[in-house]
Amino acid sequence: MAGKKQFDIASALDAAMIQFWRAGYADTSVDDLSRATGLNRSSIYSSLGDKDTLFLRCLERYATRYGDAYDAALSCAAGRPLAAVRAFFDVTLERIADPGLPDGCLVAQTVMATPVLSASVAERAREAIGFQHARLRAALKAGRLHDEAADSLATHLAAVNQSLAVMSRAGTSAERLRAVVDVALDAPARALGARD
């Protein structure tokens, strides 16, 4: 179509995701999104949706990107459950250490902002944060822990993982974050009998 500007939707979504991640949903305006993506307001609305729709797309993009990385990390859980849990935390620590990304976790900060979110965005954020627990629980069960132990440990490890994101946003050093992971790994090591 002559006269229409073409743009890469994936790049625009990544730019919008980073903007939401950096400033949060409530503190990101459509003008902020326009500056971040390089698109005018009209193009944002026509190509990416209103603010809620765009945010949901960004949240889904984030959850898929890091969810896939967590799944890959946990894929060795049947044979090496402790190594799998360590690899799970490595995904978070590597994301935190990436200078090209904002500190923290888009999902965690979205859950904390639930009072100012629409019902659909708040529900999607709660689902996304629940996926971490479900992933860890499935991995621990694959490592031959019984249901109750797997569930309790998954709750603990997911909470530690979210605390890493919050601590990183507060400026905690990579060394201290790694120390938190080392302490957190004691619980599954005991439960698993340090088999691996």
TrEMBL record:
Residue ranges: DNA binding: 29-48
Gene3D superfamilies linked: Homeodomain-like, Tetracycline Repressor, domain 2
Keyword line: DNA-binding, Transcription, Transcription regulation
Residues covered by the HTH tetR-type domain: 6-66
PANTHER family xref list: HTH-TYPE TRANSCRIPTIONAL REGULATOR YJDC (PTHR47506:SF1), TRANSCRIPTIONAL REGULATORY PROTEIN (PTHR47506)
Name assigned to this protein: TetR/AcrR family transcriptional regulator
Source organism of the structure: Streptomyces silvae
